[in-house]
Design brief:
With 433 residues, the protein is α/β, with parallel strands linked by helices. It folds into two domains: 9-55 and 205-431, Rossmann fold; 59-179, no CATH class. The protein contains 14 helices and 13 strands. Strands 5-4-1-2-13-12-3-11-10-6 form a ten-stranded mixed sheet, with helices on both faces. The relative contact order is 0.15.
Length: 433
């Protein structure tokens, strides 16, 4: 580790299987340990923290959009009841400008690809509300008294209730974006793990605190703009399974945003994956109707990536993220058991790509592994590439308390990790002939 203060430092105590951990993330960090020692908990905890830190305004806005959807429902029904219809009972098919604009607002309320709320958007909605005919509000008061209130109320009072609901939702969201209450993170953490807060939790970037148990607000990050979490190559192309897979697939569908000054670094690493490892190229057909990942082999044959070997998927995920610019020097890449479904030879190649991602692009990487080949490859390839001082190893060791582990900082010494792996050899000798 460098003598300077590390880029990121995470301290956690008393959370699920984690007794205590004091982790440095300043390049490549690898945590090793047996099953059930809390490696995946650390990975998800880090991911959710930095997802919240980096996307705070968007997450607040998404919650507000859900509130606005309730209003959207009533507004949509209002238009459904009041738009002109022909003799057949069908709409005439002619929309006035106000209706057309309002339908755009309704679509944005229901869109999956929501954006950060703004004063400009609030003002636009308010102006459109002003254009609504007051007489239309009488109908919604009768159909939806829980929103409209007393049906005998004057139309202008009903109109005012809609205005107040929309303005209140926007203003509350604006207030949260400005003050960044830490409760957004803690409430989300409770939802994911269904656990109480850790006994202790502190995260620092250099010497600045991002969060602690006593934090009122969640500070912004100066080191991380986006976080990528990969727990299995099987996630590619599969959505609505869990939050992590959905987030990954959204990144994989991102349009190219690679900075021009880094183009050569990106293309060189992408070519390494294509030409030296998987012998092919991954592409994405990204249109309104579908998002299809394809793998074109070196001999010209093309396959649906979802039907390819999991090893190819593992490298394809990295290649797609490289090609669309989702991996930068301000990315935290978290991979839980990267060796899963990889041939031993490809475990080494995968470690090589990770080391080069940090060396040439500056991606910060957090790995949870229990594979001796992955551990060795990260150590020795990083030494060959001259970045060994940016690599830190940790080993989860059992405590006196049942189901509790402390994470010991090994720096660059991997021998204790291999001593723990030797248990498997001892078991073979015990159970074998």
């Amino acid at each position: 580790m460098n003598d300077e203060e590390p880029t990121m430092r995470v301290k956690i105590e008393g959370f699920r299987a984690i007794g205590s951990a004091d982790l440095i993330i300043d390049g490549i960090t690898l945590v090793a340990g047996e099953n059930g020692c809390g490696k995946s908990t650390l990975s998800k905890l880090l991911y959710f923290l930095y997802k919240t830190v980096s996307n705070y305004d968007l997450l607040v806005s998404q919650a507000a959009w859900w509130e606005l959807k309730n209003i959207c429902y009533h507004l949509e029904r209002l238009f459904d009841f009041t738009l002109p219809r022909g003799l057949s009972g069908k709409r005439d098919g002619i929309e006035d400008d106000t209706t057309r604009e309002f339908n755009e607002i309704l679509r944005s309320f229901k869109s999956k690809d929501q954006k950060v709320l703004s004063e400009e958007e609030l003002n636009k909605i308010m102006l459109l509300l002003e254009k609504l005919e007051i007489s239309r509000l009488k109908r919604i008061g009768r159909e939806f008294p829980e929103i409209g209130g007393n049906i005998d109320e004057e139309p202008d009072k009903l109109f005012q209730k809609f205005r107040e609901q929309i303005v209140s939702t926007f203003k509350e969201a604006f207030g949260k974006m400005q003050s960044r209450p830490a409760s957004l993170f803690w409430n989300g953490l409770k939802k994911i793990f269904n656990e109480n807060k850790p006994t202790n939790f502190e995260v620092y970037e250099h010497k600045d605190q991002i969060i602690s148990l006593n934090s009122i607000e969640l500070s912004s990050s100066l080191s991380v703009d986006n976080t990528v979490y990969i727990d299995t190559p099987m996630a590619i192309g599969i959505e609505r399974e869990n939050e992590y897979w959905d987030d990954l697939n959204e990144l994989l569908k991102t349009k190219d945003k690679t900075p021009l000054f880094q183009e050569n670094k990106y293309s060189n690493l992408s070519d390494l994956i294509s030409k030296e490892i998987i012998q092919g190229e991954v592409s994405l057909k990204n249109d309104v109707l579908s998002h299809k990942f394809s793998f074109q082999r070196a001999d010209g044959k093309t396959f649906d990536l979802l039907e390819c070997a999991t090893g190819i998927k593992s490298f394809s995920i990295l290649q797609i993220l490289l090609n669309n610019g989702s991996l930068t020097n301000r990315t935290l890449l978290i991979i839980d058991e990267p060796e899963s479904n990889l041939h031993p030879q490809w475990i080494i190649e995968y470690a090589r790509v990770l080391v080069l991602l940090h060396k040439h692009i500056g991606v910060k990487i957090f790995l949870a592994s229990h594979n001796p080949d992955m551990v060795s490859a990260i150590k020795y390839i990083s030494e060959k590439q001259g970045i060994q001082n940016n690599v830190n190893f940790y080993l989860a060791e059992k405590t006196n308390k049942e189901y509790s582990y402390n994470y010991k900082h090994l720096k660059q010494d991997i021998e204790p990790i291999f001593a723990s792996f030797n248990i498997a050899i001892d078991r073979i000798n015990e159970y074998g002939v």
